[in-house]
Amino acid sequence: MRFLWALCVMALAPGALAELQEVFAWKQVDFNFSNNSVREEALKSGTYDPKQALPLGIAYYEGRVFISLPKWKAGTPATLTTVPFDAAKNTASSSPLLNPYPNWSWHQRPEGDCDGLTSVFRMEVDQCGRLWVLDSGLEKVALGGKQVCPPQLLIFDLKSDTLLRRYRFPKTSLKDNSFLTGLTLDVSGDQCNSEQDDAFAYIADVWAFGMIAYSFKDDRSYRVEHPYFLPDPLACEFNAGGIDFKWIDGLFGMALTPLDKNNPLNRTLYFHPMSSFHEFSVPTHILRNETAAGEPGDAFKVLAERRGRKLSQASASAMSKEGILLYNLVSRNAIGCWNTHQPHYEGLCGTLYQDDEKLSLPNDLTIDDNNVWVLSDRLHKYLYKELSPEEVNFRVLRGDIIKDVKGTSCDPEYIPKPEELQPKCVP
Fold it and tell me: What three-state secondary structure class fits 15?
């Protein structure tokens, strides 16, 4: 029995892991206030509390890194910010100030004013140079949550940094415990902002275990329900950095197969709940059709094998243009990968990066061209212990996917070994 177990471990063991480049690192984040007096007033009033501001989401566009800071607790003065990538070239700016996006007026608004930005978890850039921002409207999330504004989707033109559209989700798309934390975009990019722009956003409702599909063309949304969006009761216990905790989180990570210009509607959405070891899929033409998305059927698939307990639960995910799925392995301080052109067997689900220090709870990742951008933030320590202001707690990391997958099971040229195509040995 021990011999069989050893064979399984050998089959699953990765080769030499690639390393991510550390772009930015902060012990605590600070903001680019208009002057020091304003900063001191923010500190005095509690609008800014360095101990409470925690980065979570990341996006990249033409030299700008976008970072979101949800309102976990009081003390975060801006919920969506940018940092110029050039700041990384200056060693004195490895912990740069965060610039509120698009400007301070969107964040410094009186209570009850919902025309700005309230509490952003994640955002994504599309091929049209637009930033889609998912604003949960939920504050004090770490204390149970307070819905201070309706959840909304905002779309900005990144060439001019102006708002193109604001969409407030109607009650028909939500439930009483809805918590919108992630999105992925289905955009062809050839009819940007026109009346024929058939872009879609698929949005994860992590606490209400559902999905919301939003049509840019129709400027409307509808809810999609499926049992595969539910958490697995056997995968709700986590351990990160020696801290045990329980998260009962549904649909979370989503990523689309690369766009086929000849058939832009022929895509597959891969997805998983946070509390799960499984990966699932559904064709996008099902999600784009409200009637089809609401009907039971076999369009939703569970992939052949789970990632396995060795690889842990996964949070955010993203897809490279070669069809390599990357996902954050939150309990292993690692980034996993799978080549979607191969069978989804446990032996072919690899580990691309792992670093107990730099990837201490990798929370979000995004892919720009051939680069993966990762944000790690020690969220587990923030929620269940306390972050030390003497240690680096938040990092932005970057890797070259094409170079880093070479020789791994995720390499597009990799030929699976016979034992990697066998059923898993360890349950």
Answer: coil
Task: Name residues whose C-beta falls within 8 Å of residue 61's C-beta, 6 or more positions apart in sequence.
Answer: 125, 129, 131, 158, 368
Quote the percentage of the chain above a pLDDT of 90.
80
**CB contact at 8 A, 378 and 394:** yes
Question: Of the CATH numbers 2.120.10.30, 3.30.428.10, 3.50.50.60, 3.30.70.1050, which one belongs to the domain with range 16-421?
Answer: 2.120.10.30
**Under 8 Å between Cβ of 256 and 284:** yes
Rg (CA), the chain: 21
Distance CA(118)–CA(71), nearest Å, equals: 8
Q: Name the nearest CA neighbour of 68 among 312, 316, 381, 245.
A: 316
Backbone angles phi, psi at 132, to 5 degrees: -95, 120
SS3 213: strand
Three-class secondary structure of residue 32 per DSSP: coil
Distance CA(184)–CA(257), nearest Å, equals: 11
Domain ranges of the chain: 16-421
Q: Sort strands 350-354 and 334-339 into parallel, antiparallel or unpaired.
A: antiparallel
Q: Give the Cβ contact number of residue 372 at 10 Å.
A: 24
Question: Token pair for residue 277?
Answer: 């070891």
**How is the beta sheet containing 99-100 ordered, strand by strand?**
58-61, 64-68, 80-84, 99-100
**Amino acid found at 118:** T
What is the per-residue pLDDT across 106-132, written as a single tens digit (0 to 9) for each?
998 888 899 999 999 999 999 999 999
